[in-house]
Amino acid sequence: MNHSYRKGIQLVLFFFLLAGQTAIKAQDVPIDHQKRIFFPYPMDRKWSTSVGFTGTTMPYEITEELHFRMPAGDVHILRRLHNKWYLDGHLSLQGLQNLITLGPRIAIPVSDRLSMAAGNDIGFWFGIINVQGVKTKGTGWQNYPNLSLGYRFNKRILVTLKAESIMNIGINTHAGDIKVTTDYRLFSGSAYTLALEQPFYGKKSLTLAFRAIYTNFYWQTWTLFEPYDRNLFFPQIIVGIIL
Length: 243
Fold this sequence. Notes:
Layout: H1 3-25, E1 47-57, H2 60-63, E2 69-82, E3 85-93, E4 97-109, E5 114-131, E6 134-152, E7 158-175, E8 178-180, E9 187-201, E10 204-215, E11 232-242
Antiparallel strand pairs: 1-2, 1-11, 2-3, 3-4, 4-5, 5-6, 6-7, 7-8, 7-9, 9-10, 10-11
Signal peptide: 1-26
Protein name: Outer membrane protein beta-barrel domain-containing protein
Keywords: Signal
């Protein structure tokens, strides 16, 4: 079994173990009074913000003998619109290369425990990196149609499953003054997230998530200038504090 895939499974099992331990101590409260970012439910407040970090492991097909994670700062902001609608804004920060996404959501409660949401995010990534003295620049637009399904356990434990498609709308890269042309597929791949949210300390909550990305183009690898003819697996860990 792939080492990164096995690590992802272990992380998921850790999530449920942590949820079980917390459930022993926490008291049940209405979902309207609990802070959340991933859980698909109509917002009860005007804004909701999370700050944290992500770690994405590069596959061996790209790094060959090395196996390392690419960290990034993570800022996630929700803005209530009307009734069941809200905006989802997300910023992945690395300094030299960054990704911004923004899109609407509609959340539909199915029962007291179960809820779902549908949305579509437009993403813009950009980067500037010096490679052997040559300034390399890249920008690109992506689209992320998505569906989420959430379940609320008795003791303030929120679990969300999210599936999204990854679409490349346009990619523009330059090495110095030379434009680099590449042929990327419109439907680049998909991503699947398992997220757990629970009270942390004070009035803050904690998000722990594992995201499995399957794509032939991942925006953090744009400097390779080479589209792959098959999807590669990029496991990602997400940690955030909901303020």
